[in-house]
Amino acid sequence: MLGVEALNGGTAMHAFVQRQLHEMSHHVGMYSPLTAKSVLERFWASGETSWDACFDTPHLFCTQMAINVARVVSPVLPES
User: What global pTM score does this model have?
Assistant: First the structure.
């Protein structure tokens, strides 16, 4: 969503999104963020402005998600 909104943000916002997607790919060890980066770069260069124009072909973007549940799950205390 940020990538489509970045259309209005100019080159500085484009560079930020590109950099973040590249770093995300490196961090999670997956290619999907680089695919998203390529899709967005084509979209930005196209001059189109609609969401549907950005995703003119089907794409599946999956990334590994990690959730810190330390505050959600109470620790199990050993019985005395």
Answer: 0.65
